UniProtKB/TrEMBL annotation:
Keywords: DNA-binding, Transcription, Transcription regulation. It comes from Saccharothrix syringae. GO terms for molecular function: DNA binding; DNA-binding transcription factor activity. One of its GO terms (cellular component) is protein-DNA complex. Residues 2-59 form the HTH lysR-type domain. It comes from the Bacteria. The keyword DNA repair does not apply. SUPFAM superfamilies: Periplasmic binding protein-like II (SSF53850), Winged helix' DNA-binding domain (SSF46785). Pfam families: HTH_1 (PF00126), LysR_substrate (PF03466). This is LysR family transcriptional regulator. Belongs to the LysR transcriptional regulatory family. PROSITE patterns: HTH_LYSR (PS50931).
Length: 298
C-alpha cells in the first residue's frame, strides 16, 4: 500500500526539483524527506529516483507515480470535502490568501458576509503576491487563494489546483494630471516618460514589460513599488507613469489621470483540486463572487 503523505513528497520533488526544497516546504529535514522517499520506493517495489552525486531525478517509474499522485491527492481532497459536508455546518479554520488590492476591496465585504452567515468559521487572511499562492495551496498553508493573470501574459493551469473565474478588470495607464493626450496608442505617447514599475518577477512587472515591448519600447524605471496606493501616489507626484488595474484604482488620488487600455487583468478563486465541494471552500467562493458582483456598482 502506497502512503499518501509520501506520494505528496514525491510529487513536490517533481515540482521543486531538490530534496532540500521539499524539506523546506514541509518543515522537515532533508534526511527525513530522503527516508520517506526511500520508504516509498520500497512500497512501490521499483526505483523511483536516480542519484548522481547530490542531484536527484525521477526514474520512468517515478514519473508515472507522480502522474497518479495528482489523481490520488485530488481524491483525498474530495473525500475530506464529503466528510466535512456530512458533519453538517460550515465551521473550522479557513485560510485565505489574496493580493493587496483584493484584500482592500474584495475581502472586507466577503469576510463580513462569511462571519454573519457562518459564525463557526475561523477566518484567517494572508496577503500574498499571486505568484506565491499556488505553492501555499499545494502545501496546505491556504485553503482558498486569489490568483490573477493578464490576457497578454496568461498563466498555464496548475494540474494540482482548480478554481473558478471571479473578476475581469480594465487595466489603466496612470499618468500625472496635465500630461498631454497623445492620441492613438496611449502607451506610445509615454514611451519617453519615466515609469513606476513593480518588482521584477511579479506578474504586474511582466505584463508591463510585455505591453511596452509590443508598443515598441522598453520602459525606463525611475521607481519600483508593488503597492498600488504607493504607485498612484508617485504618479500624482509627477514621478512617472504606470499601469494600474481597476481594482486598485477605485479611488485614485488627485493629480492622476486614468487612461483605459484594451488589456484586462483576470482574477480567479483557486483551491486544491477536489476541494470545491468542501462546505467552507464553497461558502468562501460564494461570498467572494457576491462581493465581486457588487464591487463596481454605483
Amino acid at each position: 500500500m502506497l502512503d499518501a503523505r509520501r506520494l505528496r513528497l514525491l510529487h513536490d520533488l517533481s515540482r521543486l526539483g531538490t530534496i532540500a526544497a521539499v524539506a523546506q516546504a514541509h518543515a522537515y529535514t532533508p534526511s527525513a524527506v530522503s527516508q520517506q522517499l526511500a520508504a516509498l520506493e520500497r512500497e512501490a517495489g521499483l526505483p523511483l529516483l536516480e542519484r548522481t552525486g547530490r542531484r536527484v531525478t525521477l526514474t520512468a517509474a517515478g514519473r508515472v507515480l507522480v502522474g497518479h499522485a495528482e489523481v490520488v491527492l485530488a481524491a483525498l481532497e474530495r473525500t475530506s470535502a464529503a466528510l466535512a459536508e456530512m458533519a453538517g455546518g460550515v465551521t473550522g479554520p479557513l485560510r485565505i490568501g489574496a493580493f493587496p488590492s483584493a484584500v482592500r476591496t474584495l475581502l472586507p465585504p466577503a469576510l463580513v458576509a462569511l462571519g454573519r452567515e457562518h459564525p463557526g468559521l475561523e477566518l484567517m487572511v494572508t496577503e500574498l503576491d499571486p505568484v506565491a499562492v499556488p505553492a501555499a495551496l499545494r502545501e496546505h498553508r491556504l485553503d482558498v487563494g486569489l490568483l490573477h493573470d493578464y490576457d497578454v501574459v496568461p498563466i498555464a493551469p496548475d494540474p494540482v489546483l482548480d478554481g473558478v473565474p471571479l473578476l475581469e478588470e480594465t487595466v489603466f495607464l496612470a499618468v500625472p494630471e496635465g500630461t498631454p493626450d497623445g492620441g492613438g496608442d496611449p502607451l506610445r505617447a509615454v514611451r519617453d516618460a519615466p515609469w513606476v514599475l513593480a518588482s521584477p518577477g511579479t506578474l504586474c512587472h511582466t505584463a508591463t514589460a510585455h505591453l511596452c515591448r509590443a508598443a515598441g519600447f522598453r520602459p525606463r524605471a525611475r521607481h519600483h513599488a508593488d503597492d498600488f496606493s504607493t504607485v498612484l501616489a508617485l504618479v500624482a507626484a509627477d514621478q512617472g507613469v504606470s499601469l494600474v488595474p481597476r481594482l486598485a484604482a477605485v479611488d485614485p488620488p488627485a493629480g492622476v489621470r486614468l487612461v483605459p487600455l484594451p488589456t484586462r487583468r483576470r482574477t480567479r478563486i483557486a483551491y486544491r483540486r477536489g476541494a470545491a465541494g468542501h462546505p467552507a471552500v464553497a461558502a468562501c467562493s460564494a461570498a467572494l463572487r457576491a462581493a465581486a458582483e457588487g464591487l463596481f456598482e454605483s
